[in-house]
Design brief:
This protein is an alpha/beta fold. 21% of the residues lie in helices and 40% in strands.
Length: 177
């Protein structure tokens, strides 16, 4: 994917995620106070995603650019279906667009995926299967709605999809295959 290229410019969110990872590693005793200060300073001044990835490459559970799928589009349709690896985090920044995530044949490597949304005049379709729980508690709805299946909560879900962010004149729909 072109967004995974290390020479791409880093965003404020990219830097914040790396700083959070570094602080957690410092709290766990994986980094000394000096290493933590040095890496945080370098993260805050990093220009590319590659520079950020290098700062957390030796830490377990580090979220790098490859662990985030970014969907930015105006108009049309965007779909991820078939056999694809589900990242830990997905960012959806769209206008006038229908976005579909089909988890039916997806390779699920984590118990939770967070979908951060900034969607205007669009539709987010999540195609799930039994054992997938969708939590829309983190969404801010502005003239928008969600259409999620009642009783989809499982005691021990295979995948928990956490929705957060803002929908303006948009809709989230859960479908079964």
């Amino acid at each position: 994917m072109p967004r995974d290229l290390p020479e791409l410019r880093a965003s404020h969110d990219d830097r914040d995620r790396v700083v959070d990872t570094l602080r957690t590693a410092g709290g766990d005793g994986r980094l000394t106070a000096e290493e933590l200060d040095d890496r945080v300073e370098r993260a805050l001044s990093a220009r590319t995603r590659g520079e950020l990835a290098a700062l957390v490459a030796d830490l377990p559970g580090a979220t790098t650019a490859k662990d985030v799928l970014v969907v930015e589009q105006t108009g049309g349709k965007w779909t991820r279906a078939g056999r694809w690896t589900v990242p830990d985090r997905i960012e959806v920044r769209t206008k006038l667009c229908r976005v579909t995530f089909d988890f039916t044949d997806a390779v699920i490597t984590s118990r939770t995926v967070r979908i951060d949304t900034d969607m205007q005049h669009g539709k987010l379709v999540i195609v799930g299967a039994p054992g997938i729980v969708i939590d829309a508690g983190g969404l801010s709805l502005v003239f928008s709605k969600t259409k999620l299946r009642p009783g989809s909560a499982a005691a021990d879900p295979r995948l928990r999809v956490e929705l957060a962010g803002t929908l303006k004149h948009a809709k989230v729909v859960e479908r079964r295959p």
